[in-house]
Write a structure and sequence with these properties.
The protein is α+β, with helices and mostly antiparallel strands and about 400 residues long. It is built from nine helices and ten strands. It has an eight-stranded antiparallel β-barrel with strand order 1-2-3-6-7-8-9-10. Strands 4-5 form a two-stranded antiparallel ribbon. It is elongated and about 95 Å long.
């Protein structure tokens, strides 16, 4: 028993001593087989680049940039650095053929790369420069690296503000990187930027449209003799797309609920009476934005459609029940309409490739119609429609922000 107790004591002591000797740092040193992913590469690049730049080790810095780009693609933090370096060195060109490889080797990109991506890179720079106020999306250990790196970029931009002989585009980029604000993009419509790739990219970003889909609800309110049909609720669906300011949708909606008073129609030489009512609208709706803010939009609306009213069979008053299946009557009319829409954006979701903005759109339109009901109730008159659209608008990520 004493021998067993002694062996147990020695074993526990040896185990405790061994465990105490193996520290976490020792375990980390043992784990020498490592696979770098893009998160690791970006984190290390963010930490290394400012130090290498301040130490003047440009060859090593270029090697880090090339390694990062070859393994993970050309991220904004590399593009911004190369733009500022080229402005400082007097080698900036808008095609920036050396965005990918600082030495312009086999990995250099063509001129279209700058035109396609510069606006989204400017937006990305602003978001990361604001990391001090919004750090929830990042891991704690990367926040300090991001903050330090973008402080470094900003200080580099500030050092260039007094540089002489800069072009308008160079001055714009330096000012933007010093105090990032997408509202500054509105300056690019100025004559000093005429013909520049940056201005063309800004003017063209809205031309790449997106897809719109929505549900509609509203009221149809006829006027004149047509008012005898009564007011009717409607439900429908819109689908289409839009550019920067122009919108175009296919609109289908149905109006329902019986009329408040009887109407008459003639079918098969027989006068028929009824209150049944159902209406259809199938058309092309267009709009043009007059005024936009980040959350709202006012637009002028117009459309052309086929409008129809079905006056359903009501055999109880016809005196002839032999052809009940043919007792319905449809009245058709061309619908030309115009009005206003006020859109309120209620949610904005951004993924890596798409932006999805949901909205509520309040619409009022005057509809010119011309129904014919020969031998039956007179249906002359036009209509006013009130509608609410709940929809969602999706467009590519490199066009997702609106500087206005």
């Amino acid at each position: 028993m004493k021998r067993l107790l002694l062996l147990s004591t020695l074993f526990i002591g040896a185990y405790t001593t061994t465990r105490a000797q193996i520290q976490p740092t020792a375990v980390e040193n043992m784990m020498y087989r490592r696979v770098l992913n893009c998160t690791d590469i970006e984190y290390n690049a963010l930490c290394m680049i400012p130090r290498l730049y301040k130490e003047g080790k440009m060859d090593t810095l270029d090697a880090v940039i090339t390694y990062s780009a070859e393994n993970c693609g050309m991220y904004e933090y590399l593009v911004t650095l190369n733009i500022l370096r080229s402005i400082k060195n007097g080698t900036f060109k808008e095609e920036i053929s050396n965005l990918y490889d600082p030495k312009g080797g086999e990995h250099a990109v063509d001129s279209a790369y700058y035109a396609k991506n510069i606006l989204s890179y400017l937006q990305s720079y602003k978001e990361r420069a604001d990391i001090h106020r919004d750090s929830k999306r990042y891991f704690p250990y990367t926040i300090a690296a991001i903050c330090d790196y973008y402080d470094f970029l900003k200080s580099l931009a500030v050092s260039l503000e007094s540089k002489q002989g800069m072009t308008p585009v160079e001055s714009f980029l330096v000012n933007y990187y010093t105090n990032p604000d997408t509202a500054m993009l509105r300056r690019l419509v100025g004559p000093e930027y005429t013909g520049t790739t940056l201005q063309n990219a800004y003017k063209g970003y809205g031309k790449a449209g997106g897809v719109n889909l929505g549900l509609t609800a509203g009221f149809w309110m006829p006027m004149g003799k047509l008012s005898a049909m009564g007011n009717h609720p409607s439900l429908g669906l819109v689908a289409g797309g839009r550019g920067k300011n122009f919108m175009c949708d296919v609109d289908f909606n149905v109006r329902f609920v019986n009329s408040p008073q009887e109407h008459t129609t003639v079918k098969n030489d027989t006068l028929r009476y009824g209150k049944d009512f159902i209406g259809y609208y199938v058309g092309l709706d267009m709009g043009y934005s007059l005024l936009k803010t980040k959350k709202t939009e006012l637009a002028v609306l117009g459309g052309i459609a086929v409008d129809a009213i079905d006056i359903w069979k009501n055999p109880n008053n016809t005196g002839n029940n032999n052809n009940n299946s043919n007792n319905d009557r449809t009245l058709f009319s061309l619908n030309l309409n115009a009005g206003l829409g006020y859109k309120v954006y209620i949610h904005n979701r951004v993924s890596k490739i798409m932006q999805n903005r949901s909205y509520i759109d309040f619409q009022v339109k005057y509809n010119y119609v011309n129904y014919k009901n020969a031998g039956g109730s007179e249906v002359t008159g036009n209509a006013v429609t009130f509608g609410i659209v709940y929809g969602s608008y999706k467009k590519p990520i490199h066009h997702y922000y609106d500087a206005k």
